[in-house]
Design a protein that fits this description.
The chain is an alpha+beta fold. It is built from twelve helices and seven strands. The strands form two sheets. Strands 1-2-5-3-4 form a five-stranded mixed β-barrel. A two-stranded antiparallel ribbon has the order 6-7.
Amino acid sequence: KKDAKADKHDPAHDPLRALAYHLRGSKQGPESRNARLDDYKRVDYFRGRDIFRLLRKNTALLDEYAPAITGKPTPPKAGIKERDVQITAIGERLMREGYIKRIDRVYDEPRPGRTRRVKFPSFMQTLPRQLQRFTDDGEGFYGWLYEQPTSWTTVVLSGLAAFVVVLMCLFPLAPIWMKKIVLYTCISILGVFFFIFVVRTAVFAAVWLLTGRHFWILPNITSDEIPIDEVFSPMWEFDDLDASGNVVGRINAVKRLGLAGALTAVLVGLYKIAPENTKAINIHKAHDSILDLFDLNDVPKGIAGSTASGAKLDPQDPANIARMDKMRREAGGAGSRVTVEDVDGVNGTSTENGENATEPMEPSYAKPPEPDKPIEEMTAEELEAWEAAVEIHRVAEDVRKKKEAEEAARAAAGEPTVQRIVPAKKTVPYPTPAGEEAKKDPPPPSTPHPHDSETKKEL
């Protein structure tokens, strides 16, 4: 049993199965493609002329299997006719034993915009039983019913596919640098395809306008009926030839020039009605917008939401000043001074801890932000964020002082100045002198009854 199992592909054991294994499972077999058969399953198929061409060239393989399969010895000096008879007999035996079956293309006409049918269609149909025969002229398509033996390459590729699926599920947990690599790779691929489509369209338009011919660079790049290894073959092609090689569908020069003029007029009209206040695309801003869209900014967060020193921050942005104001208010403790001023003009000021002060109240953004913990206990990211916040405050203070100096100069010259918003001040009631009682407001009058005669008279 072990010898029979190990020798199942040997010609002496089953020559027909051994030949099918060689044609189906090795790279030396006929060229095959995968297609949808009868709209519900996939099948690998080959052309009859390809198997004729293969076995005519590989006479050693034919001499090894043909006598055992057909039951007839090979003639001493076999010519092309004798070889074709052997190949036809082998094909009929393969169909009779259920290794292959006859199929044909679903669409006999070329695709719209094409003059020739594709070599290997993507949609096939099974022929009726009366047409299930192997032709001796090599025409027709044949689908494989014999399953391809599983190799170690298939097993390894299946394991790699499962591993890739697991990595895709774990992609949200990937580091920022890996996500950026994936993003830049996808953008690069899209950019290459966009460049190819623009170039091939421009070349097609130029050749068509000058000669009227349909010339395409990479004509198979948009086809879904060929494998990926044939996308770049051929590199260019005239797509206006019929089966006999004659040019079809050529438009005369007058119509081509008229169509080109109409298209140019449309483009010029669109340019004329386009808004004039347009700005060029800022690559850096577009890059930052894409990173923000996919949340790929790896700037570390610091104190009160401030960013690291390596980030690009605008010190004149009011949002940054407001953020520093909020950070200082959150960092301020019970001992932070809050000065007040009497509304009557009396400079009576106080603090929360009871101390008196005479300096006027300053806005919260006039002082540098204070850390929420000792600097020695900060991490590297928090220290960088703290330094960035201090630097932003310094630049903002310089800008504010510069603007105040400019306004003072304009006021001295008698020019109109900008009205600044004065910070709000907390009022304190005027202190009552010692030995005097605080004046109290008189009590409100009692409300009379609505049926009182005096009230009615007053009303």
